Amino acid sequence: MSLTLTRKTYYLLGILAVACNMFNAILLLTGSSPLALGENIAFVLTGMMLLFLAALRNIPGSEKARYFLSFVLLLAGPASLTTYAPINRALLGGCWANLAWMEYSRLRREDPAKAGPFGGAVAAVCLCELAQTLLLLAPEMTDLIKMAYNLMFFACTLARGWALVALYRQAARQ
Questions:
Q1: Domain-by-domain residue ranges, the chain?
Q2: Of 160, 153, 132, nearest to 46 (Cα)?
Q3: N or C end of the chain, less CB within 10 A?
Q4: Which pTM was predicted?
C-alpha cells in the first residue's frame, strides 16, 4: 500500500488550520481568551499546507514562487520586528488573499467553469481580511471596535474555510 499525497490532502491541512482558528474565534466571541495552542497549531498547519503545495510536481515555477510567497507572508506577521498590529495583520491577510487569488487564477486557467463557484469565496476572503485589517487602524480600541474585530475574525475564518472546502471538493472531483 502506498500513500498518495495530492492537493486534496494539503487542502485538508488548511481546513484543519481554519478549524483551529474558528475555535479561537468562537472563544473570543463568547468573551473567553483564545488558546495559544490553537493559534500555534493553525499556524503550523497553514505553513505545512503552503510548503507542501509549493513542493508539488508538474506546476510552473511561478506558481511555486507564489506559494512560497504566501508562506513568507505567513511567517513575516509574527516574526516582524514591529509591534504595530495592522502591519502584522496585513501580512497574515496577504498570505490568505494571495493563496485564494492564486488558486482562483489556476482554476480559471485550467477550466473557467471550475473557477465560477470559487469566485465568491475568493472575494469573501479578500474583503474579510481587508476589513479586519482596517478595523485595527481605529484611533482607539473601544469595546465596540473590539467586538467588530472579533466578528471579522470569525468572518475571516468562515471565508477561509469556504475557500478551502471549495478547493478540497474541486480536487476530489479530479
A1: 7-173
A2: 160
A3: N
A4: 0.88
